[in-house]
Amino acid sequence: MACSGNRGEKCGGALRISVYQISGHATGPNIALGRPAFQCSVGHGGSAGRAVDGNRNPQWAGNSCTHTHGENDPWWYVDLGRSVTVDHITIVNRRDCCSERITPFDVHVGDSTVVTRNPKVGGHHSFCPIDTERVVPCGGRRGRYVGIRLPGKRRVLTLCEVEVYAAPNLALGKPTVQSAVAHGGFASRATDGCRDPNWGSQCCTHTPGQTCPWLRVDLGAQVSVQWVVVINRADCCRERLNGFTIHIGNDPQVDRNPRCGGHHTIPAGKNKDAINCNGQRGRYVGIRLPGHGRVLTVCEIEVYAGTVTRKRTSEVRGTEGQGCGEHQEGDNWVSDGQDCTCDQNEVVCYEVICGVDGKEKPEEDQDGMLTCPEPAEEEETARGLLDENMDDWIDDYKE
Known about the structure:
Jelly Rolls, 5-stranded antiparallel β-sheet, 2 helices, elongated, BG_Antigen-Binding_Lectin, Galactose-bd-like_sf
């Protein structure tokens, strides 16, 4: 993972060191450029659209900075047009005067047009007065709207540019296989970048009717998966995908890898859903339909990494000895008595579910981490896979 924005400088009489860790792939287009933007009020002609006009001039005279009236909790947001996985945003602050006005500020990403209803990215952020721009990592936060808000009374919000960069789809063009092929619906269609949900577009996969059909994407290396986006067929047969499971891990056999959540169903009236996997780690991402006579059709699978992670129950609850659990939106927990595992830094924790029926008991590996047992005849293959990827795993844990 590449790092950018490293700097050390005097700020308020003390040395300040800032390190922003940004995905090495997040150098694509600024997806906020020219998009509709809104703010709570307009002062001195500083309209909201100036923050997404592509002009990074930090001087007010450049006619490219926004301006609100002095008011309580002023806000600004941009509409990206659809929900995306955000890697980071870059904010250009005013420099000719008043640079201190922006500190502290909050960043929100979500699907509501009301800024404060969307999840906040981190805590309060700040600008050193000598900085022109600030990069805020968003850790794979997903949403259509990116907002900035100044908490407090009688504050003025001025932004000279806001740039938004999407996280890359890690599954795009990666090797993909499935349990069987019917009607020419090859597995590679799920990672070809075509999101058309109609069969006639030749963008959708298709298996014959099978027991527990599956599809698997090989990401090439172990990553922390934040989101898996599944696009369903829309012209017919939407119900076929009901009750699917997502599996992420380092075993090429889908059902040997831990599940991401339980059984999923795409909401009625929609043809896609984003499954939050909260940093679950693995090289392979699989989708599986449990049951007999099932037909698996997906029109695209997208995989996004992120740094928003689950924590130990004791960390989130603020108590000791509570074991390991997960914290997700809505405060859903894995109970302390269930089988959980954490990575070596104890920041990613998830329930380990093994076996076709989910009832197989996990085992502890040599590092004390829970993993699904493997048949004895395949132990050598599993060891080979472990050795092959050990360097990548060590590098990942150092990030």
